[in-house]
Design goal:
- The protein is an alpha/beta fold.
- It has helices at about 15-30, 40-60, 75-85, 100-110, 130-135, 155-165, 250-265, 270-290, 315-330, 340-345, 365-380; strands spanning about 5, 65-70, 90-95, 115-120, 140-145, 170-175, 195, 210-215, 295, 305-310, 330, 355.
- It has a seven-stranded mixed beta sheet with strand order 2-8-7-6-5-3-4, with helices on both faces. The protein has a three-stranded antiparallel beta sheet with strand order 9-10-12. A two-stranded parallel sheet has the order 1-11.
- The protein is globular, with a radius of gyration of 21 Å.
- The chain binds pyridoxal-5'-phosphate (PLP).
- Pyridoxal-5'-phosphate (PLP) binds near residues 73 and 100.
- Pyridoxal-5'-phosphate binds near residues 72, 145, 149 and 197.
Length: about 375
């Protein structure tokens, strides 16, 4: 049986309810939502609305229509960044970002948007004071990830939200690694936009994600097209969610996501975090006993999500991941994790790192077997 520790990429396994509801949707509810007046179309529409309501409740969004569905967090981030930033605007970000933020910002830089990247410490920790110092007259937005997909470090989002609110700046959060794990309240965090993905901590299928857009935030849609509403007009409808949901939606995927959210909500974020923190503590303690291992990040479950990057001496990270997979049947991820800036920050741009990430389905046995495997690899090394 494989030990799957690549949950920061996508969680696996998915809950049985997720799998069953995707099959049920295709089998019994396969019409296009919002496109017809017949019973099956209306039922598909209800299914999607129900998913919106569950997500709205999770993120404390009062109007579920302010949550739009996308294919993933990358699409959500592209939509909001390209939809609000104009040449001459200034945006503040961190040196720990995933390419889902870093690449759209690099593209926008080419269009005349100014970008300040706040350098985080070698553990990935951001000083909110540096953000405050970087604010200019033309600063439009702060965009950061909630927690790093490289070393799990949690960003000081409460403070960043206050800074943004005090300066009248938009606050955009990339919650790809935290939705379904950390408490995200769009009001408490003063969020103007929240990008999330459905296939990680929300235990939905790949190809699902979404974006909360606060009322009053003017976002230009990336796409125009059929929405099933106001079809007589060539203008894209002004109302959410239709304004940003052109084309046939991924109804089966959204059905699966809704069940994932239901499972997470019923279990409780606190319970999930407690379990994953226990595994994380055990893993970190075990790693510390292994002399040849370098651990990156805060090394403290209170300051990070259950994502741990390490290196074994100066061994190539992909070599270690290959042995873990081939010899020990342990799935992890090596290399740069789509985050070269973050690896530069923690000092692993050349070597990459071996990343282990837990889900609510991992066990103490998974942790112990992985530590044992690493011990074996070290013992065999020259
Ligand atoms: C921090 C972070 N942001 C964005 C993304 C992109 O998510 P998706 O692949 O679902 O678009 C990821 C995925 O690994 C991530 O870890």
């Amino acid at each position: 049986m494989m030990i799957y520790l690549d949950n920061a990429a996508t969680t696996w396994p998915k809950p049985e309810q997720t799998v069953a509801s995707i099959a049920d949707c295709i089998r019994n509810n396969g019409a296009n939502p919002g496109r017809g007046g017949h019973k099956m179309s209306l039922a598909a529409g209800r299914l999607i609305y129900n998913a919106r309501e569950l997500l709205a409740k999770l993120f404390n969004v009062d109007n579920p229509s302010r949550i739009i569905f996308t294919g993933n967090a990358t699409e959500s981030l592209n939509l909001v960044l390209k939809g609000i930033l104009k040449p001459g605007n200034h945006v503040i970000t961190s040196s720990m970002e995933h390419n889902a933020v870093a690449r759209p910002l690099h593209f926008l830089k080419g269009q005349g948007v100014e970008v300040s990247e706040i350098e985080c410490s070698p553990a990935g920790i951001m000083d909110p004071g540096d953000v405050e110092k970087a604010i200019r007259k033309n600063t439009t937005a702060i965009v950061v990830l909630h927690a790093s997909n490289v070393n799990g470090v949690i960003m000081p989002v409460e403070r960043l939200g206050e800074i943004a609110a005090n300066h009248g700046i938009k606050f955009i959060l990339d919650a790809a690694q935290t939705a379904g794990l950390l408490d995200i309240d769009v009001e408490r965090l003063h969020l103007d936009a929240l990008a999330f993905t459905g296939h990680k901590g929300l235990y939905g299928p790949q190809g699902t994600g979404g974006l909360f857009i606060r009322e009053g935030l003017e976002v230009i849609p990336l796409l125009q097209g059929g929405t099933g509403s106001k079809s007589e007009s060539l203008e894209q409808p002004p109302d959410l969610p239709d304004r940003f949901e052109s084309g046939t939606p991924n109804t089966p995927g959204i059905a699966g996501l809704a069940e994932g959210v239901r499972v997470v909500t019923e279990k409780g974020l606190g319970e999930i975090r407690k379990h994953e923190n226990m595994l994380l503590r055990r893993f970190l303690d075990g790693l510390e006993q292994l002399k040849q291992i370098q651990i990156y990040g805060p090394g403290n479950p209170m300051l990070q999500v259950p994502v741990v990057s390490i290196n074994v001496k100066d061994q190539d990270s992909s070599e270690i991941a290959f042995i873990l997979d081939k010899v020990f049947n342990i799935a992890c991820r090596s290399g740069l994790h789509c985050s070269p800036q973050a690896h530069k920050t923690i000092g692993t741009l050349n070597q990459g790192a071996v990343r282990f990430s837990f889900s609510m389905y991992n066990t103490i046995e998974d942790v112990d077997k992985t530590l044992h495997a690493l011990e074996g690899i070290i013992a065999e090394m020259p």
